[in-house]
Amino acid sequence: MILTPIPLEELPAILADLRGRLTGADPLVAEVFERIAATLDLVPLGVDTPQHRADGVALAHRFGIETIDELPMAAYSWDGRAIRTQSESYVLIHEIGHWLVAPPERRGLVDFGLGAGPETGRIEEANAAICVDQETQIEEEALSSLIGILWEVELGHPAIMAFLEQNWLEGWDRAACIDNLADNLANLHRRGLIDANYRPIPPEHFEVKRRVASL
Fold it and tell me: Residue 209 has what pLDDT?
């Protein structure tokens, strides 16, 4: 949920301000920012379209993640086996991000053992499965958000909308905004989820894959 709403018409000026303050920053961070900012031009073409959702389902399957064509409210966003896909496309891709970030031993837990996601229906049961501390919850939420946004860029989706919705522009007029982006990009790189150019590692480069089905 967005903390401080920013009208879409104000985004170009805000992005321009950030662009100016990225001068002298890590060139890779500036490049990632530009990739995301450039997707503002895609917004008039449609947000959360059927094609975007189909792309998200296809990406899940490329990673070997099963999907269920149901609302997350029917049970869980992630039930320990599959993602429920009747949600906004960026939410679906965000769940793929959670799968990528979570250690393998937690992929079998509902909502990855982090507690109920905002669209999960069986909240008490999901929260009963929490097995991490708050610091881990916060860290993994940020990393899942950012890797999902980077995948949206690669898929040609208007990633700027998730960048805004998931609060990456919160406090945009303070240095902490850029520092937060840089720190999380570095963390994704350390975890092997983005390459030396800070682009997502394609699923075809992951060693372990399994056959999947859309249920």
Answer: 41
Tokens of 170: 């919160």
Distance CA 39, CA 68 (A): 29
Predicted local distance difference test score (pLDDT) of residue 204: 86
* Residue among 95, 116, 113, 94 nearest 104 (CA): 113
Region 64-91: mean pLDDT is 97
Distance between CA 185 and CA 50 in Å, rounded? 29
Residue 208 has φ and ψ, to the nearest 5°, of -100, 120
Per the CB < 8 A criterion, the answer to whether 70 and 84 are in contact is yes
Strands 66-68 and 82-84 come out as parallel
Q: What tokens were used for 110?
A: 């509902």
> What rounded mean pLDDT belongs to the chain?
94
Mean pLDDT to the nearest integer, 148-177: 97
